[in-house]
Amino acid sequence: MKVVCNAPEEGIGVYIIYRLSHGNVDLVFIGSYGKVKQSLSLEITEKGLLREITQRSKLNDWKIKMLAEGIDALDIYWYETFDKEPYDIPSTIKGVIMQRYFDVHRSIPPWNNKF
C-alpha cells in the first residue's frame, strides 16, 4: 500500500474505499483524517492522510478481508479537504457522505463499525 498510495503526507481529508467483487463495485468504507484547531492550524500526527490510509490497511489486514469476502480488487479514493478554499472540515464531509449512503442503503458501509 505504501508503494502505490499517493495521498499527501501532511494533508487532511476523507477517503472512500470501494470493492470489486464478482463484477460488482460497491462502497465499503468511508474514513476521514485530521482536525482543525481554533487557530485554523491543522492537527496532524505523524504522516497525515497517507499514514491514515496505509496504517488502516495494516490494522484491518485487507488481504485477509479480500480473500474471505472474495474481493478481486479495492479502489481507494482520497480527497484533501482543507488545502485550499473553500475549506472543508474532514469529519463534516465524512458525515455528509455517510448520510447520503445511509439515505440510499438504510445502513452504514459494511466496513464502518459505527458512526
Question: How does this model look, in words?
Answer:
The chain has helices spanning 48-60, 62-69, 90-105, and strands spanning 13-21, 24-33, 35-36, 42-43, 73-80. With 115 residues, the protein is of the alpha+beta class. The protein has one domain. β1 and β2 (24-33) form a beta hairpin. The longest helix is centred in the C-terminal third of the chain and has 16 residues, at 90-105.
The largest beta-sheet arranges its strands as 2-1-5
H/E element order: EEEEHHEH
Helix content: 25-40%
Question: What profile does the largest beta sheet have?
Answer: 3 strands, antiparallel
* DSSP summary, beta strand count: 5
Helical/strand content category:
alpha+beta
The 3D shape can be described as globular
Average pLDDT, rounded to a whole number, is: 87
Question: Which residue ranges are poorly predicted, with pLDDT under 50 across at least 5 consecutive positions?
Answer: none
Helix tally? 3
Question: What's the domain count?
Answer: 1
- In percent terms, what proportion of residues is strand? 25-35%
Distance between the termini: 25 Å
Rg over C-alpha atoms, rounded to the nearest angstrom:
15 Å
